[in-house]
Design brief:
heterodimer, A: alpha+beta, five-stranded mixed beta sheet, four-stranded antiparallel beta sheet, 18 helices, B: mainly alpha, MetI-like fold, 2 domains, two-stranded antiparallel ribbon, 15 helices, 78% helix
Chain lengths: 563, 313
């Protein structure tokens, strides 16, 4: 134990002190202390010691789960055969019942070790030591060891795999390198590879060290990226019936476009599972089919309800509404082309909209009014600099100052689904019109939009929830990164962001976010109408369900209240 | 006779070739690439490009078409990019489900429409005729999704005596048979109205024919006139119409299948189209065109057998 004490991250004692003096809240304490390598048990233990709350944080502690019963969940069943290349969150929900992740971001937006017992970050956040739990067995009886995890890490980070995990570790474990050759057009051919041969280092059978090139704060969060389920190496990145897993269920039947049937594992290492059987049923894209399935109790729950289903589902007495805050949103952003090359015009776009009204119109008031700096209240480092209020006169004046006294014309591209996005765009164009910004709407099929999302000069793009605010800003607004869809490039912003990313103290980081958020409000490329509250409806007989910010379903916690 | 059938088969083959090429071309020119659809929004452009190369989507559309057609002629329907498995098994399973739905609906539509059509047509303008006509027009003019939602809100949400979706799995205590009731009901209501009106119109025409008047004048009972003289003649024209319903019932039930989450051919084609799964769309189109042309040829031949004037001419 002595060496463990000594290897504790130097910031942790200060954090405990801050929590005792209530300078950070409970959520923030848990998030940061587990981030720095305290095991979840220890972190929740400290919370319990300080304010007497129970170790198990989840609300499910209220009722004792009962064993038995079958649950049917309405969710699309796409091809599930290659988890590392999953492109949608719902693809991963089947696999995650059977194969665990190294970490888990819970419904409270706190990331805790999962297959890991703990992690430790070096003070400079470049070296991360991952310690595996030693009591985990695959469903084929083999113990989980470091080699298995390393195989998965290598597989994700191999560019030939095509996994989006690669993007998250770029700059940290892998980098683009010039191969020295050029292609037909004379451009240098780049290859992605580990920055150092020792980037992933096996210490012993249960310890892996990640040696990063640059500091990375969000390693635990990134390890819960939805394609990052830990697979049995001999399956070579494939998954299906018969694939060994570490999770609570085994897949028994998989029929693409129809259903998945899961059987519980008797020897699961964690709590649960409580069900006799779990079924995922594909009801297609028609929202009314899902409603009908819930109405006739052919489904006991559903993945993400849409705004068009809300009213009718709310009327059904046997259903319960579950809501959760999230940072899911969509961003109306512009390229820095005329007239949007002028920061005043971009600010006018923001000043002309009323985010509180947009939340009402487009998202049934479920969620929170948007803030244009893309840091949401659910993010730990969110600094409340106040909502930007609608100011039509102010917007007109900015336009006039920028040389457009008669207003401007533009065209925004957006997708037609989910339904709220188009409603939000229509509402915003009406508001912009009042300020003399006449915007035509170009509705595209979703796939066509995603083909061009970084290329359209003015577009409305969905961004999913990410646990940390700096993660989103780094992905979407840093100069030159692949997902910088607005082509925004501001050295001041980059500098401020890098500074914030290196600050562990949340209080301090929140202070560092203030100038970033102000800069985004003043000069940024984005209009953010709302933060979506994610919601869904489940039968009241289901126990243990909670709405996750990313709508993940953890079925090992689910149970049936009456048979 | 033989040459007539051969000529129709030749036309059929030509139609299939043209249709299959048009589908290839259309999916080529609609926005969004198959690779992007497979990889999702977060894939990097290089990943999309490399998958396109892997799938061979970067080659000209004509080359891909010829290659695909060659494979089909050898019995290989290709590989579904959506289901990530060969097209044939996915396809057979879905087609079987839809054929079952179509068979049940057809078995109800035909006797019901002939019965009501004849009864309405034999006394044109009677109260019964008026009632049937109004009901038939009402049903056909309601779109399927509205009919589906209407029936669902009564029998599923209000009364709770039927299941709302038809996944063909024994779920929530609803038998597979009970799951078929609503989709079949929508198809029957939507389709029978049309066929009833066709039968009725044909019956009215026959009832005005001189030989009917002669039969009545020579003292036959009304019943005998209808069964001996009117019925057979009145069914000649609707016969073709009825056969054409097979077309609609198998390849036109996209909406019904989507509304009731029925795992059939129509929903599969919808998903395939939305995801640009060309191999699957093509296989579906081949079957659809095949069914269309076959029923048409069968209709023509049947018409010929029923109507001596055509046979002799």
């Amino acid at each position: 134990m002595a060496d463990r004490e000594s290897s504790i991250h130097p910031y942790i004692p200060k954090l405990v002190d801050q929590y005792e003096r209530r300078r950070v809240d409970r959520r923030e304490f848990l998030r940061t202390s587990t981030l720095l390598g305290l095991s979840a048990a220890t972190a929740y233990g400290i919370v319990g010691r300080i304010d007497g709350s129970r170790f198990v944080p989840q609300a499910r502690a209220q009722e004792t789960p009962k064993k038995g019963g079958i649950l049917r969940i309405s969710i699309r069943v796409p091809d599930l055969s290659t988890p590392p290349t999953f492109s949608w969150v719902y693809d991963s929900i089947s696999v995650r019942q059977c194969n665990d992740y190294l970490t888990r971001t819970g419904v409270d937006n706190i990331t805790v070790p999962w297959l890991l017992e703990k992690w430790q970050a070096s003070e400079d956040l470049k070296t991360w030591t991952l310690s595996l739990r030693k009591d985990i067995k695959w469903s084929n009886g083999q113990p989980l060891v470091a080699d298995h995890v390393i195989w998965n890490l290598n597989h994700w980070l191999d560019p030939n795999t095509g996994s989006s995990v690669l993007g998250l570790f770029k700059g940290f474990l892998v980098e683009d390198r010039d191969t020295g050759t050029t292609d037909a057009d004379g451009n240098p051919v780049m290859a992605t590879g580990f920055w150092d041969a020792n980037a992933i280092e096996k210490k012993d059978d249960f310890t892996i060290v990640l040696n990063g090139k640059s500091p990375q704060m969000a390693v635990p969060e990134n390890l819960f990226h939805y394609p990052a389920a830990i697979l049995w190496p001999e399956d070579n990145g494939k998954w299906g019936v018969g694939s060994p897993g570490t999770g609570a269920f085994d897949p028994e039947v998989i029929e693409v476009g129809k259903r998945v049937v899961f059987k519980p594992r008797a020897d699961y290492w964690g709590d649960g599972p409580y069900l006799d059987e779990l079924h995922f049923i594909d009801h297609g894209d028609d929202p009314s089919a899902q409603v009908a399935a819930l109405a006739s109790r052919q489904a006991d729950g559903m993945y993400e309800a849409s705004v068009t289903q809300y009213e009718v589902l709310k009327q059904m007495p046997h259903l319960e509404l579950y809501q959760g805050v999230s940072a899911q949103t969509a961003v109306a952003r512009v390229h820095p082309n005329k007239p949007f090359d002028d920061a005043r015009v971009r600010k006018a776009l923001r000043l002309a909209v009323d985010t509180e009204k947009l939340l009402q119109l487009a998202h049934l008031n479920i969620g929170a009014p948007g803030e244009h700096h893309h840091v949401a209240p659910v993010h730990p480092e969110y600094a409340d600099i106040g909502l930007m209020k609608q100011d039509i006169e102010g917007a007109k004046k900015l336009l006039a100052d920028a040389g457009y006294p008669d207003g401007i014309e533009a065209e925004i591209s957006c997708k037609q689904d989910p339904a709220w996005e188009l409603i939000a765009v229509q509402a915003m164009t009406e508001m912009w019109k009042q300020a003399g910004i006449n915007v035509k709407i170009n509705v595209m099929p979703s796939a066509a939009y995603w083909d061009n999302w970084t290329k359209v000069p003015f577009g409305f793009t969905a961004w999913t929830h990410r646990p940390l605010g700096v993660m989103v800003l780094g992905l979407a607004y840093r100069s030159g990164v692949p997902w910088n869809e607005s082509h925004w490039s501001n050295p001041k912003f980059d500098e401020l962001l890098s500074k914030a990313e290196g600050i562990l103290d949340v209080e301090d980081r929140r202070q560092a976010m203030v100038p970033i958020e102000e800069l985004m409000n003043e000069e940024g490329p984005a209009v953010i109408p709302l933060w979506r509250g994610m919601f869904t409806f489940w039968d009241k007989k289901v126990g243990g369900f909670q709405q996750h910010p990313t709508s993940y379903i953890f079925a090992e916690q689910l149970w049936v209240k009456e048979a | 006779m033989m040459s007539f059938v051969l000529r129709r088969l030749g036309q059929m083959a030509f139609t299939v070739i043209v249709a299959s090429f048009l589908i290839f071309a259309v999916s080529e020119w609609t926005p969004g690439s198959a690779a992007r659809k497979m990889l999702g929004p977060y894939a990097l452009p290089e990943q999309v490009e490399s998958l396109s190369r892997e799938l061979g989507l970067d080659r000209p559309v004509l080359v891909r078409y010829v290659e695909w057609a060659g494979n089909v002629l050898q019995g290989d329907l290709g590989y579904s990019t959506l289901y990530k498995q060969p097209v044939a098994p996915v396809f057979a399973d879905r087609l079987k489900n839809t054929a079952m739905l179509a068979a049940i609906a057809f078995a109800i539509i035909v006797p019901v429409s002939i019965l009501f059509g004849i009864m309405a047509g034999m006394r044109e303008g009677s109260l019964f005729d008026r009632g049937i006509s109004v009901a038939a027009i009402l049903c056909t003019s309601l779109p399927e999704f509205a009919l589906g939602a209407f029936l669902s809100s009564i029998f599923v949400i209000w009364l709770g005596i039927l299941p709302g979706t038809s996944t063909l799995q024994d779920s929530g205590g609803w038998s597979v048979a009970s799951q078929l009731v609503l989709p079949v009901a929508v198809m029957v209501l939507y389709d029978a109205g049309y066929v009833i009106r066709m039968v009725r119109a044909s019956m009215i025409e026959v009832m005005l024919a001189p030989y009917i008047r002669t039969a009545i004048l020579k003292g036959m009972s009304f019943r005998q006139v209808i069964t001996r003289h009117a019925l057979r003649n009145a069914l000649i024209a609707p016969f073709t119409v009825i056969l054409l319903q097979i077309n609609y019932l198998i390849t036109g039930v996209v909406v019904v299948e989507a509304v009731f989450a029925y795992p059939g051919f129509g929903r599969m084609m919808l998903d395939a189209a939305l995801n640009k799964d060309v191999a699957l769309i093509e296989a579906g189109a081949l079957v659809a065109v095949g069914i269309a042309v076959t029923t048409q040829v069968a209709g023509d031949i049947g018409y010929m057998l029923l109507n001596p004037r055509i046979r002799i001419a």
